[in-house]
């Protein structure tokens, strides 16, 4: 035995026990008792008080002043097994036990981890162990000597090896009780489930209808969504077409805007050139406005004076109507003259405007002619060589611009080609993606169906495995019960000897040859009496031979029933009518093996009732009838026996055995059917899993393909967008280059014109320039005079219009006044 950290043995200590008696000698406190405690502990002792401690952790070395405490205690016990006392195939057996300070515990046999129960079973077969009285501690010897008979019986059973089997029997009985409780619970659950099957069936039917409705609803929703998708797709296509049209319009508007901007630039330049003239015109307008205001004031004063001077003197009864009408006629004549004057002023203004425009046009032409003469003279002075260099340089710029435009057009064509190709490939791949997505939906549905099939088949396999296990367990239970009942029916008396012997004409036990209706076993056993344990033989000779065999072999005594199917009494006395609820005993028994006549004879005149009260009433009415109750009591006119029975009768045991065998066969058949169905279910599960794996693999491949196509679509989309952006940039650059080319060509044309003019024109004299300048100045003076005349004509027209407006309506007013005065005088 090796001790490590156990109580006072801090270091590893090995004790070798030789054959014979070993004595451990030492002073008090040296650890002698610790050796015995180590033996008890390693063999499975679980009581801390038995080991002289308060708790199990006290067996671990607690430390001293010079040595710290340890974390675990370990004891190993090696047993010599050369004689095979221990039921294990080793000549040496080492059992060990380790306890950690954290509370964990480990057991091992020959270094292999095991359970405490394994060690106890191993040691119990050799007379050792925790519950064996091989270790007698201090004060325990007196308890053994003073033991009661029950305690001494325990010691004897321990020494004989019966204790282990008793423990196992108790364990088996506990398991049977637990199994019976489980069976009772199962019966209750089965009853409850049967009661719930009806409502659950109705609920299942409703659930199926709901599932059908939901499927129809999902289909309708899918159809609606598909219709919405088609409509949205058509709308999207229309929007895309509208967007393309709008983009074309936008490009056209941008081109128009560019043209307008160019015109605006030219107008701004012209406005800048016309700013001095605008300032002069503004000053003239201000002066004219001031003059107009003075003229209006003068006109107003004159009209007031004319009105005051033209007012007639007041007559006693108002003005003369004739005079008023004459004034009205004069005013009409004046109004006609003023309108004619306005017409003449308008004609004069039109003539002044036309004259001013002609003079200004001539002055402009003269100005340009002077500029041309001056520029030609300057060009001539600067030299034709410089002008030719400018023309060459400008022509080079034009050629460079044309080359740039050609390059830009090629770039634009390439970008548009790349964009078109990318869009075409994108559309093709998009079509493929649509088809792949439709296939993906089919794969998803197929995969889900395969998953559901796997789940269903797995559940079916699990259910069949549970059913097979339950059937095997039930078969084992009934097998154990059958064996127990067979052991109970195994006779150790003369009947058993006859049943075990051969060649004496024995048919079998009478109980085995009888079939009794359920619930009547005790009644038939009471009616048969000792014959219930009898053995059936073929004939009287066979009965004689059987008796001789028992006597010769000294095998004990036995009751014999002689078989024979000869007709005889039917076991029902004539003239006896049984009350309701009572039956003749022969009616509840079915005999086989030729024992019918004997059984009818044994049960002749015996009736079966429910209780003793019915039996007493029937015997009182018919004393010749013997009556037995279903509880096993017999009552007749001259005899009676019964009471309580502590053990079941042979018929009851035989009936239970038959029932157990039938249940065993039924359980075995169910187990066989379940295993047969399990084979098919496992094959279906394997096939379903294969389909599941196949659909999963195909789904993964489809996902990979879709991912690759999506990546390619993204690349093509980026390419198309990049090509479109590049084409847009190239178009903008091409527009700018075209504008630059137009400007360069215009400048080149001007330079060429100047060069040709300079080369073709003769040398201009100063007199020609002076004459052109004098003509320009004269025309400018005429233009100024024409503008002055136009201004005066406008003022004259405005004055005539004001005068005409002043007298307008006065003639009508005077005519109304004359009519009113004449009417007043008539009254």
Automatic annotation (TrEMBL):
<feature type="coiled-coil region">
    <location>
        <begin position="229"/>
        <end position="270"/>
    </location>
</feature>
<feature type="compositionally biased region" description="Low complexity">
    <location>
        <begin position="806"/>
        <end position="818"/>
    </location>
</feature>
<feature type="coiled-coil region">
    <location>
        <begin position="727"/>
        <end position="761"/>
    </location>
</feature>
<feature type="coiled-coil region">
    <location>
        <begin position="324"/>
        <end position="481"/>
    </location>
</feature>
<dbReference type="GO" id="GO:0005524">
    <property type="term" value="F:ATP binding"/>
</dbReference>
<dbReference type="GO" id="GO:0005694">
    <property type="term" value="C:chromosome"/>
</dbReference>
<dbReference type="GO" id="GO:0003677">
    <property type="term" value="F:DNA binding"/>
</dbReference>
<feature type="coiled-coil region">
    <location>
        <begin position="162"/>
        <end position="189"/>
    </location>
</feature>
<keyword id="KW-0067">ATP-binding</keyword>
<dbReference type="GO" id="GO:0051276">
    <property type="term" value="P:chromosome organization"/>
</dbReference>
<feature type="compositionally biased region" description="Basic and acidic residues">
    <location>
        <begin position="793"/>
        <end position="805"/>
    </location>
</feature>
<dbReference type="InterPro" id="IPR036277">
    <property type="entry name" value="SMC_hinge_sf"/>
</dbReference>
<feature type="domain" description="SMC hinge">
    <location>
        <begin position="504"/>
        <end position="619"/>
    </location>
</feature>
<keyword id="KW-0963">Cytoplasm</keyword>
<keyword id="KW-0547">Nucleotide-binding</keyword>
<keyword id="KW-0238">DNA-binding</keyword>
<dbReference type="InterPro" id="IPR003395">
    <property type="entry name" value="RecF/RecN/SMC_N"/>
</dbReference>
<dbReference type="InterPro" id="IPR027417">
    <property type="entry name" value="P-loop_NTPase"/>
</dbReference>
<dbReference type="Pfam" id="PF02463">
    <property type="entry name" value="SMC_N"/>
</dbReference>
<dbReference type="Pfam" id="PF06470">
    <property type="entry name" value="SMC_hinge"/>
</dbReference>
<feature type="region of interest" description="Disordered">
    <location>
        <begin position="793"/>
        <end position="827"/>
    </location>
</feature>
<protein>
    <submittedName>
        <fullName>AAA family ATPase</fullName>
    </submittedName>
</protein>
<dbReference type="InterPro" id="IPR010935">
    <property type="entry name" value="SMC_hinge"/>
</dbReference>
<keyword id="KW-0175">Coiled coil</keyword>
């Amino acid at each position: 035995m090796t001790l490590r950290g156990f109580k006072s043995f801090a270091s590893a200590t090995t004790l070798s026990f030789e054959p014979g008696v070993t004595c451990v000698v030492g002073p008090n406190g040296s650890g002698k008792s610790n050796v015995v405690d180590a033996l008890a502990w390693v063999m499975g002792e679980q009581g801390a008080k038995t080991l002289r401690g308060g708790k199990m952790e006290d067996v671990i070395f607690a430390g001293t002043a010079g040595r710290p405490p340890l974390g675990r205690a370990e004891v190993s016990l090696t047993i010599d097994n050369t004689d095979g006392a221990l039921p294990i195939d080793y000549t040496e057996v080492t059992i060990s036990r380790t306890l950690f300070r954290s509370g964990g515990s480990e057991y091992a046999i020959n270094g292999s981890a095991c359970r405490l129960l394994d060690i106890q079973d191993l040691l119990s077969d050799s007379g050792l162990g925790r519950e064996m009285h091989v270790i007698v501690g201090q004060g325990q010897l007196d308890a053994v000597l003073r033991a009661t008979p029950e305690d001494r019986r325990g010691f004897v059973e321990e020494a004989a090896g019966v204790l282990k089997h008793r423990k196992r029997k108790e364990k088996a009985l506990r398991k049977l009780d637990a199994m019976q409780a489980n069976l009772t619970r199962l019966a209750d659950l089965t009853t409850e489930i049967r009661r719930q099957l009806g409502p659950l069936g109705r609920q299942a039917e409703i659930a199926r209808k709901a599932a059908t409705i939901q499927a129809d609803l999902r289909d309708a929703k899918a159809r609606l969504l598909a219709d919405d998708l088609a409509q949205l797709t058509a709308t999207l296509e229309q929007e895309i077409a509208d967007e393309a049209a709008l983009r074309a319009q936008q490009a056209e508007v941008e081109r128009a805007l560019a043209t307008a901007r160019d015109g605006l630039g030219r107008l701004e330049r012209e406005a800048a050139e016309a700013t001095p003239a605008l300032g002069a015109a503004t000053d003239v307008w201000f002066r004219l406005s001031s003059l107009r205001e003075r003229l209006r004031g003068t006109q107003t004063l004159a009209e007031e004076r004319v009105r005051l001077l033209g007012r007639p003197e007041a007559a006693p009864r108002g003005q003369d109507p004739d005079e008023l009408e004459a004034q009205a006629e004069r005013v009409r004549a004046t109004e006609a003259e003023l309108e004619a004057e306005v017409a003449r002023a308008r004609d004069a203004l039109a003539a002044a405007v036309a004259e001013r425009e002609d003079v200004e046009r001539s002055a402009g032409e003269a100005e340009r002619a002077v500029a041309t003469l001056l520029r030609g003279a300057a060009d001539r002075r600067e030299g034709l060589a410089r002008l030719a260099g400018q023309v060459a340089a400008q022509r080079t710029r034009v050629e460079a611009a044309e080359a740039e435009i050609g390059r830009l057009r090629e770039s634009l064509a390439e970008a548009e080609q790349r964009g078109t190709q990318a869009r075409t490939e994108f559309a093709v791949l998009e079509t493929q993606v649509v088809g792949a997505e439709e296939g993906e939906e089919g794969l998803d549905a197929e995969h889900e169906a395969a998953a559901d099939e796997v789940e269903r088949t797995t559940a079916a396999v699990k259910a069949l495995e549970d059913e097979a296990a339950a059937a095997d367990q039930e078969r084992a239970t009934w097998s154990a019960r059958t064996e127990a009942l067979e052991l109970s029916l195994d006779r150790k008396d003369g009947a058993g000897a006859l049943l075990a012997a051969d060649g004496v004409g024995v048919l079998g036990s009478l109980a085995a040859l009888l079939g009794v209706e359920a619930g009547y076993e005790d009644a038939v056993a009471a009616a048969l009496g000792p014959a219930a344990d009898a053995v059936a033989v073929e004939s009287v000779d066979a009965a004689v031979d059987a008796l001789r065999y028992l006597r010769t072999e000294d095998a004990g005594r036995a009751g014999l029933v002689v078989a024979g199917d000869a007709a005889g009494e039917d076991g029902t006395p004539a003239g006896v009518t049984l009350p309701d609820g009572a039956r003749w005993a022969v009616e509840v028994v079915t005999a086989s093996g030729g024992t019918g006549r004997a059984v009818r004879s044994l049960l002749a005149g015996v009736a079966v009732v429910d209780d003793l009260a019915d039996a007493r009433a029937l015997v009182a009415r018919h004393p010749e009838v013997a009556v037995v109750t279903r509880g096993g009591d017999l009552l007749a006119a001259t005899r009676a026996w019964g009471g309580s029975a502590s053990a079941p009768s042979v018929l009851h045991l035989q009936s239970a055995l038959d029932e157990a065998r039938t249940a065993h066969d039924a359980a075995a058949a169910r187990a066989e059917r379940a295993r047969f169905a399990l084979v098919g279910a496992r094959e279906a599960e394997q096939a379903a899993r294969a389909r599941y794996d196949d659909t999963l693999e195909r789904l993964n491949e489809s996902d990979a393909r879709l991912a690759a196509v999506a990546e390619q679509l993204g690349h093509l989309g980026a390419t198309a967008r990049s090509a479109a952006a590049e084409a847009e940039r190239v178009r903008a650059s091409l527009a700018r280059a075209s504008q630059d080319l137009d400007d360069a060509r215009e400048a080149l044309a001007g330079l060429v014109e100047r060069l040709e003019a300079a080369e073709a024109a003769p040398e201009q004299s100063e007199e020609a320039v002076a004459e052109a300048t004098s003509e320009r100045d004269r025309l400018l003076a005429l233009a100024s005079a024409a503008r002055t005349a136009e201004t005066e004509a406008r003022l004259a027209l405005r004055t005539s219009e004001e005068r005409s407006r002043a007298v307008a309506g006065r003639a009508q007013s005077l005519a109304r006044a004359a009519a009113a005065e004449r009417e007043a005088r008539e009254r």
